[in-house]
Amino acid sequence: MSREQQDALSRTALGVFRLNGQFLAVSEKLAEPAGLTAAWWQVLGAVLPEPLPVAGIARVMGITRQSVQRVADLLVREGLAAYEPNPAHRRAKLLAPTETGRAAVRRIDPGHAELAALLMRELGGQEAFDETVRVLERLSAAMDTVHASYQESPSDG
Fold first, then answer.
1. Rounded (10°) CA dihedral 147, 24, 125, 11
2. What gap in Å lies between CA 43 and CA 91, rounded to an integer?
3. Are 112 and 127 in contact (CB under 8 A)?
4. Do 57 and 46 touch, CB atoms closer than 8 A?
5. Percentage helix, strand, coil, to 5, in the chain?
6. What angle, 0 to 180 degrees and rounded to 10, lies between the N-to-C axes of helices 65-77 and 54-61?
7. Quick check: helix, strand or coil at residue 18?
């Protein structure tokens, strides 16, 4: 690997780490009035389209199953989500939002829409925003591939 490639990797990683922190900070502010934390909102958001097992949520979010399990248990305890039977796996229950959980996420929508509009303006319009999303999705897909091959033989990379 050339120095230029290493520098690009370092700049990419630092940029992603910074973005993660920025998104988490903004998400905490957006979620607070709804009585949620950023982590609660993330997990609820993952199961809004359809109930998922904790391991599935962790895969989608790119975090550990244990951290999702802790948040899922808190959401259930607070009445924001419920565990449902999983027809595909007897022991791995599905997490589903309750109506209370859905209502909490809906309370975030106005701030979420405002943030999206501000970001779109800062990025230079919808086309630029869409391109940013495409680049980030491409980076994530590439990291999935690299991570899988790195797991197989880390010394070869």
1. -50
2. 20
3. no
4. yes
5. 75, 5, 20
6. 120
7. helix
> Is 65 in a helix, a strand, or coil?
helix
Which residue, chain included where needed, has tokens 């800062």? 122
**CA–CA separation, 10 and 16 (whole Å):** 10
Tokens encoding 31: 């979620």
pLDDT tens-digit series, residues 49-59: 999 999 999 99
Token reading at 6? 């290493």
Place of tokens 């998104």: 23
- Look-up: residue for tokens 């022991």? 91
pLDDT in tens, 123-157: 999 999 999 999 999 999 999 899 888 877 655 54
**What is the separation, in whole angstroms, between the first and last Cα of the chain?**
9
Nearest by Cα to 11 from 19, 47, 99: 19
What are 81-135's pLDDT values in tens digits?
A: 999 999 888 788 999 999 999 999 999 999 999 999 999 999 999 999 999 999 9
Please, what is the angle between helix 38-47 and helix 3-31, to 10°? 90
Phi, psi for 37 (deg, rounded to 5): -105, 170
Structure tokens at 29: 């502010």
Token pair in block for residue 59: 């895969």
